[in-house]
């Protein structure tokens, strides 16, 4: 039987009186690279926040590794990268290596000494995002896309089993988006990390993700990428009446 690392069942959420998510059922298999797609305001970020326990649903349940969120404590198994482009100005006094090492602090405890293994683990994470040439450079001197790679290295240095990413290519130069997704694909395949990626742009990731979830308040589709690609274009467009572009350039 397939092992699920995240199980969402009967989930509904509203801010004040605005319904944002309705009756979402979504199981995410271990080792998947899931793309959660949908137009602006369709509830993608809200769903991630619910999975991270930052918001509480009015209805339904989320389980992480089989444990209901209300009892889940093992947050080191989960990494999160948000839209953080341009978060550091050029004067920020920390090197790439130091930023990535700081990702080990939550594992080790704030004032505990980071042992000699820490540097090796940090370098390994930096290499896996293709940033080894910049390890000793100040993070503020890097481009938005390079900084985002460093944030991913910081998120994976503690070896999480799930990595959640909310529109991580915002601020990444268009020319580098493709290699950015290739790097994610490599993390999924080589490190075996389950990736949950929120994105507008299925076109850029349709040859990378293994599964797709189409959200627009309701979950219109969830399945593997092959089943998604076989869906009727007209049907898919009808879920996103206001954002046909999202689907139209998928084959571009
Ligand atoms: N803190 C909040 N309080 C009230 N309403 C909110 C809040 N955050 C989001 N919303 C509303 O909830 C809806 C879903 O927002 P959400 O950010 O989850 O969508 P999204 O699919 O991630 O959108 P985008 O692609 O634009 O980031 C939107 O209508 C938004 O205005």
UniProtKB/TrEMBL annotation:
<dbReference type="InterPro" id="IPR003593">
    <property type="entry name" value="AAA+_ATPase"/>
</dbReference>
<dbReference type="InterPro" id="IPR003439">
    <property type="entry name" value="ABC_transporter-like_ATP-bd"/>
</dbReference>
<keyword id="KW-0547">Nucleotide-binding</keyword>
<feature type="domain" description="ABC transporter">
    <location>
        <begin position="6"/>
        <end position="244"/>
    </location>
</feature>
<dbReference type="GO" id="GO:0005524">
    <property type="term" value="F:ATP binding"/>
</dbReference>
<dbReference type="InterPro" id="IPR027417">
    <property type="entry name" value="P-loop_NTPase"/>
</dbReference>
<dbReference type="InterPro" id="IPR017871">
    <property type="entry name" value="ABC_transporter-like_CS"/>
</dbReference>
<comment type="similarity">
    <text>Belongs to the ABC transporter superfamily.</text>
</comment>
<dbReference type="GO" id="GO:0016887">
    <property type="term" value="F:ATP hydrolysis activity"/>
</dbReference>
<protein>
    <submittedName>
        <fullName>ABC transporter, ATP-binding protein</fullName>
    </submittedName>
</protein>
<keyword id="KW-0067">ATP-binding</keyword>
<dbReference type="Pfam" id="PF00005">
    <property type="entry name" value="ABC_tran"/>
</dbReference>
<keyword id="KW-0813">Transport</keyword>
<dbReference type="InterPro" id="IPR050153">
    <property type="entry name" value="Metal_Ion_Import_ABC"/>
</dbReference>
């Amino acid at each position: 039987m397939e092992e699920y690392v995240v199980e969402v069942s009967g989930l509904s959420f509203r801010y004040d009186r605005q319904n944002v998510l309705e009756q979402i059922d979504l199981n995410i298999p271990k080792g998947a690279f899931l793309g959660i797609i949908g137009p602006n305001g369709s509830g993608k970020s809200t769903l991630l926040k619910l999975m991270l326990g930052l918001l509480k649903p009015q209805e339904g349940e989320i389980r992480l590794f089989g444990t209901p969120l209300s009892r889940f404590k093992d947050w080191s198994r989960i990494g999160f990268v948000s839209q953080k482009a341009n978060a550091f100005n050029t004067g920020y006094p920390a090197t790439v290596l130091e930023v990535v090492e700081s990702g080990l602090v939550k594992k080790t405890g704030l004032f505990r000494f980071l042992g000699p293994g820490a540097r090796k683990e940090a370098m390994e994470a930096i290499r896996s995002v293709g940033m080894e040439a910049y390890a000793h450079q100040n993070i503020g001197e890097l481009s938005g896309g390079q900084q985002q790679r460093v944030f991913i290295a910081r998120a994976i240095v503690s070896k999480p089993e799930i990595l959640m990413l909310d529109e991580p290519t915002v601020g990444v130069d268009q020319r580098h988006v493709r290699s950015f997704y290739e790097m994610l694909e490599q993390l999924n395949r080589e490190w075996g990390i389950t990736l949950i990626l929120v994105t507008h742009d299925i076109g850029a990731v349709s040859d990378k993700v293994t599964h797709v979830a189409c959200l627009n308040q309701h979950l219109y589709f969830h399945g593997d990428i092959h089943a998604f690609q076989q869906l009727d274009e007209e049907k898919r467009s009808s879920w996103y009446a206001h954002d046909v572009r999202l689907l139209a350039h998928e084959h571009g």
